[in-house]
């Protein structure tokens, strides 16, 4: 582990010099430092900034401070009732111990668990640009079928971010160039030929909060995650969904897929295919299939396509419930 | 009048020390001027190390040892202990250098910055049954013939009205004890002191002594508490030699604790196996022929052959039986013992193939086994089926669905050899009416310390509280390895002998060596038997498998302590669940190594995976086997339980998983 300087942030937009990074819960960054994958010179600890509360917004939405712990957010009464998909996604993630440390802002910025990225001795375009991507011919069973590039097929590991993508969450950031808002779906960038950059954040920009819009459809929402064991495992596929059915027709729907792309995958094509159509399992299946047309699986990860399709049908069918 | 301690559910004597943090593990012993060693692993699976270039400015670094500057070691029968002696690279992850520094952080950083000048060579790491380099080894683990044959298997298979011919593959698996392999080494003059996490203190003293040209008496190995081993700590591992070497060079005590990633290459694993099973039967289910062939791999350093077909020699009597092992040397780490080496993967193939035969016959898989089983196995199958609720089962697959869940049940038999190994114990009467029992055994967390106290208490006619147990130290009377499900029988035998001697001769001290007795006894062919029953649910949406019930019924002789025994049985069964559903060391052929080398990516079952589990046993002390009447319980739980789960997965879904583990993607529809 490389020696580093540690200091405490005094303001949201503390100027960060080259080689400095923010430290929140540390559940991912510290691991990467131990492994030699992340080698920052300075850690700027943001845990003492006043970003620990969950507040109601004037428009009926909710503002989640970036330092709110995952376990606290999952337990928040407003989140559980108005945005159950988010609470469920948080509780599906990691382990109790990790959720007690992990923060909202840090969760969004955690890095891929691609096994090549996590090993500093392996080539990886993400941790060593230009060194190649051994995953394409190697172990990619849990890597991307959507949005990947020849340079990188990493998947984004967060469960929470998938729920936030479905909820149209907006990320508030503050930085050297001032404050700005970014829809969560635009926070992440696809790898293309520069996979070393995960997000559209500029150096020194700090996530200060995540804003959830007032979203009536979210009251009927759910998150379903498939994984290789019952707990403490990253998703092999997940779906966040919200659904409103009126007179048997889909009047509103939100869908996002996890563990299939370098970012939480908002399923716009599927949503468009469903809006105004009968809320039937056949239509749910057709919509998922339409979204997954874009999938480009490799040797060992084609199973994600039927998995996501099955999950989508199952979760929407359960959300439909008895509504006719 | 003292009630018997043996058979009582006494809690582990060291439990309070462990849960309070007072118990000391290998790396917990404070030392003056302690230095820290960090391994620099090979980044290539095959080649030559030409030079090691270090940053001369690195502060706090005391030494960077590699073959170009390391003191020369004596050769021993374990080439893995010849650390830093050669420029040859035998596998990715092999220690090529050791950085020694005054702080752990400095050692770790210097190791990251080091430059290895390597000439890489083409490597070959992929096991195939048709690999041109495969050969028949002389012996397979533990020390038995590679091939056996009786009758005419080919003719019997041709003549059999019903037969199956199936191939099962089990991936490489890793032991992953909670406490990593760890050593603190210190030289007191020409004598070596090792605080080391292992399963055999006296064996470690001998092996490490040998490479330093010391007799075992001049190596003091302290192994007070061990956080698991599952076979990987049965012999000295490179960490012990590296620590001792570094301590010699730096003239300071040196600690080497392997990071989890290094444990995937440096300390052993269960080798992958490809197993072909052919079974022939009469129409009534009478078995007429079994052919069990297995292919596995070893390293180029050392031949270790996972003896997967051996279990078939002991399980079902059959007139025509052939078992065979072939092994391929590859550029991979050396495989070693992992809980029930041979038996665990072998029983997957045998008991799943038998299930496939039952399907072909249209028979109840339980009845098919009962027809072939010996009395011990049959008793377990019957009692287990009763407790589990087997009767009334619809044997056709894919018949029971509740919501999104397909539900199925499965059964598999189990067997493990009951052995004892020579050991010596010493008992002393203390001034305060207490007794000290001393034996150089290791307690891996199984409760060995507690059970030995129970045995001694009964032999001496005193309460358990009057017994002081001293174990985990190579200067105590030599004990056999804590392995092969033989610890309690071996050490308990020596303790029993010493206690009886003390009493019969009215002495204050008695020492008892079982070598002669054990050598006579081992000619007997005895086994523990068991039967596993599983109920699983398979999610029709995702292919996820959940084990809703797992039950083991065992015939393992006298159960010395039901509480610690239950822990051993359940632990073995849960490890079997991992083998069936989760565990897999994933090979990257290009990199030449396992890429999921940590506990986030190498999946063992979590608490949430264990929904309902129980173990029970037939109360049948085996008093003519050894004075303890025990057959050993450490490994039988992982033998058979994976097959029971896989058979239940088939019963639930109609899908036969023949390449382990049964991951969701293989069951997705």
From TrEMBL, chain A:
It holds the Pfam family FAD_binding_5. InterPro entries: CO_DH_flav_C, CO_DH_flav_C_dom_sf, Diverse_Substr_Oxidored, FAD-bd_PCMH, FAD-bd_PCMH-like_sf, FAD-bd_PCMH_sub1, FAD-bd_PCMH_sub2, Mopterin_DH_FAD-bd. Keywords: Oxidoreductase. The keyword Ion transport does not apply. Gene3D superfamilies: 3.30.465.10, CO dehydrogenase flavoprotein, C-terminal domain, Uridine Diphospho-n-acetylenolpyruvylglucosamine Reductase, domain 2. Residues 1-217 form the FAD-binding PCMH-type domain. The keyword Oxidoreductase applies. This is FAD-binding molybdopterin dehydrogenase. The lineage of its organism: Bacteria, Bacillati, Actinomycetota, Actinomycetes, Micromonosporales.
């Amino acid at each position: 582990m490389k020696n580093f300087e540690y200091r405490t942030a005094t303001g949201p937009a503390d100027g960060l010099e080259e080689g400095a990074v923010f430290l929140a819960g540390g559940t991912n960054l510290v691991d990467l430092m131990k492994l030699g994958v992340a080698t920052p010179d300075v850690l700027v600890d943001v845990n003492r900034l006043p970003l620990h509360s969950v507040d109601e917004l004037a428009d009926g939405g909710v503002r989640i401070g970036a330092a709110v712990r995952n376990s606290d957010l999952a337990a928040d009464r407003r989140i559980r009732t108005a945005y159950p998909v988010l609470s469920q996604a948080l509780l599906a993630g990691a382990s109790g111990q990790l959720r007690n440390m992990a923060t909202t802002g840090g969760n969004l910025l955690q890095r891929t668990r691609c096994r090549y990225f996590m090993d500093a001795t392996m080539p990886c375009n993400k941790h060593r640009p230009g060194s190649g991507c051994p995953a394409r011919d190697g172990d990619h069973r849990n890597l991307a079928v959507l949005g990947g590039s020849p340079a990188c097929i990493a998947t984004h590991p967060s469960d929470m971010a998938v729920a936030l993508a479905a909820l149209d969450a907006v990320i508030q950031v503050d930085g050297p160039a001032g404050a700005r808002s970014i829809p969560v779906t635009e926070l992440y960038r696809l790898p293309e030929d520069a996979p070393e950059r995960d997000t559209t954040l500029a150096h020194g920009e700090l996530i200060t909060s995540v804003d959830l819009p007032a979203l009536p459809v979210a009251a009927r929402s759910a998150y379903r995650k498939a994984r290789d064991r019952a707990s403490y495992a990253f998703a092999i596929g997940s779906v966040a969904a919200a659904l409103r059915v009126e007179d048997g027709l889909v009047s509103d729907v939100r869908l996002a897929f996890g563990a299939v792309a370098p970012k939480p995958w908002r399923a716009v094509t599927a949503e468009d295919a469903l809006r105004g159509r009968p809320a039937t399992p056949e239509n749910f299946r057709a919509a998922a299939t339409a979204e997954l047309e874009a999938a480009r699986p490799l040797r060992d990860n084609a199973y994600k396509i039927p998995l996501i399709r099955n999950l989508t049908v199952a979760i929407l069918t359960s959300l439909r419930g008895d509504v006719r | 009048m003292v009630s018997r301690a043996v058979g009582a559910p006494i809690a582990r004597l060291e439990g309070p020390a462990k849960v309070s943090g007072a118990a000391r593990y290998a790396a917990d012993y404070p030392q003056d001027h302690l230095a820290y060693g960090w391994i620099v692993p090979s980044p290539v699976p095959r080649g030559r190390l030409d030079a090691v270039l270090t940053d001369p400015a690195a502060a706090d670094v005391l030494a960077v040892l590699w073959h170009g500057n390391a003191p020369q070691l004596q050769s021993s029968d374990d080439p893995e202990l010849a650390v830093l002696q050669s420029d040859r690279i035998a596998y990715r992850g092999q220690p090529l250098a050791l950085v020694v520094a005054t702080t752990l952080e400095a050692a770790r950083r210097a190791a990251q910055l080091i430059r290895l000048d390597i000439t890489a060579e083409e490597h070959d790491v992929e096991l195939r049954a048709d690999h041109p380099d495969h050969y028949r080894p002389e012996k397979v683990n533990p020390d038995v013939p590679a091939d056996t044959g009786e009758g005419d298997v080919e003719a019997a298979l041709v003549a059999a009205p019903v037969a199956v011919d199936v191939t099962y593959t089990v991936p490489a698996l890793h032991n992953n004890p909670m406490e990593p392999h760890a050593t603190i080494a210190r030289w007191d003059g020409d004598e070596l002191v090792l605080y080391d996490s292992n399963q055999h203190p006296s064996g470690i003293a001998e092996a490490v002594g040998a490479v330093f040209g010391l007799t075992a008496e001049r190596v003091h190995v302290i192994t007070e508490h061990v956080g698991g081993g599952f076979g990987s700590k049965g012999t000295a591992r490179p960490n012990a030699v590296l620590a001792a070497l570094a301590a010699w060079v730096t003239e300071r005590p040196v600690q080497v604790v392997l990071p989890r990633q290094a444990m995937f290459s440096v300390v052993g694993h269960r080798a992958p196996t490809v197993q072909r099973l052919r079974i022939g039967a009469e129409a009534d289910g009478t078995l007429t022929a079994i052919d069990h062939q297995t292919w596995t791999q070893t390293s180029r350093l050392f031949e270790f052959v996972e003896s997967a077909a051996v279990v078939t020699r002991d399980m079902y009597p059959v007139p025509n039986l052939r078992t065979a092992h072939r092994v391929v040397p590859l550029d991979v780490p050396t495989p070693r013992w992992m809980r029930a080496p041979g038996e665990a993967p072998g029983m997957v193939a045998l008991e799943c193939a038998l299930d496939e035969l039952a399907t072909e016959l249209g028979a109840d898989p339980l009845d098919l086994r009962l027809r072939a089983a010996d009395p011990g196995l049959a008793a377990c199958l019957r009692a287990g089926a009763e407790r589990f609720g087997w009767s009334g089962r619809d044997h056709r697959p894919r018949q029971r669905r509740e919501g999104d869940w397909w539900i199925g049940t499965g059964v598999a038999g189990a067997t493990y050899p009951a052995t004892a190994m020579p050991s010596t114990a010493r008992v002393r009467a203390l001034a305060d009416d207490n007794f000290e029992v001393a034996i150089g055994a290791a307690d891996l967390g199984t409760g060995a310390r507690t059970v030995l106290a129970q045995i001694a208490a009964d032999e001496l006619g005193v309460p358990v509280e009057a017994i002081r147990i001293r174990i985990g130290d190579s200067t105590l009377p030599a004990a056999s390895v804590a392995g092969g499900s033989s610890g309690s029988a071996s050490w308990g035998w020596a303790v029993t002998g010493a206690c009886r001697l003390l009493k019969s001769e009215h002495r204050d001290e008695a020492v008892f060596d079982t070598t002669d007795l054990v050598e006579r006894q081992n000619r007997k062919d005895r086994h523990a038997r068991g039967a596993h029953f599983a109920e699983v649910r398979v999610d029709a949406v995702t292919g996820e498998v959940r084990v809703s019930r797992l039950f083991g019924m065992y015939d393992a002789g006298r159960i010395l302590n039901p509480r610690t025994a239950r822990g051993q049985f359940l632990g073995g069964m849960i490890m079997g669940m991992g083998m069936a559903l989760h565990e897999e060391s994933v090979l990257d052929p290009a990199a030449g190594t396992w890429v999921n080398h940590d506990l986030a990516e190498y999946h063992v079952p979590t608490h949430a995976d264990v929904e309902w589990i129980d173990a029970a046993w037939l109360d049948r002390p085996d008093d003519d086997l050894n004075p303890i009447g025990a057959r050993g319980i450490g490994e039988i739980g992982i033998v058979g339980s994976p097959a029971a789960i896989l058979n239940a997965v088939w019963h639930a879904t109609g899908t036969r998983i023949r390449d382990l583990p049964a991951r969701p993607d293989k069951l997705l529809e």
